[in-house]
Input
Amino acid sequence: MATDADLLRSTLELLILKSLTWGPRHGYGVADWVKQSTGGDLLIEEGTLYPALHRLEAKGWIEPEWGVSENNRRAKFYKLGTRGRAALRAEVSTWERYVASVARALAQTTAEPA
Amino acid sequence: MATDADLLRSTLELLILKSLTWGPRHGYGVADWVKQSTGGDLLIEEGTLYPALHRLEAKGWIEPEWGVSENNRRAKFYKLGTRGRAALRAEVSTWERYVASVARALAQTTAEPA
DNA sequence: TAGCTTCCCTTGCGACACAAGGGGAAGCCC
DNA sequence: GGGCTTCCCCTTGTGTCGCAAGGGAAGCTA
Output
């Protein structure tokens, strides 16, 4: 069985980047956005989220800045940089192509592919 | 960047099972089927394929039987069992639901999800 | 004061795709 | 015959990464 972990692996960065397209957001907010915008289907654990944010930061795709959250808490806001925006476009494209390839395979109705 | 490895991870078993829906096929043939039916987009390395087949066999989803290939070579043919067929249905469903969830998130056009 | 929520982080673990190796047998070309 | 390619099977080592489980601090509510 493909586990949730396996599935997430292919789209985690993609979803994080996407969540930042409307402006900076802190980590907790990123997880919440993903949860909300998938109707609760996708849940990102904190032990998954924070290392991922650090990876993206290390790659120069997002930039952190400490600030204060809506709830008056100390929070690290991540901003999508130019490179991050380009990466998002590339990731979306890769993902869509992959989904299409799999769909093509699953749609096969004869033993030998056309 | 989501690597090819990350992407494969979510659908490898799915694709293998699918390739067996028309009857037994040996490992090499499974890899070839995937390659052909995705137009060359997806390539399964042998170091990925054989361990995966063994995992599926250990789970009782596929059953091996030694035979002779079309090219007169000794080959291990895998057959989809009843449990394997059920697993395939489940995996397809899981995958499609996941794809739909991601699509929903990517389709967001406002900061706060509906 | 106690307890819940928000927000950040780390460590240890298990799973697994891949690269790189190995082997053996069949077919072909010279 | 000897060499090469193709087919078909396998394993080991390495690196990556999601997750469970931990910890901590600060704000709010009662």
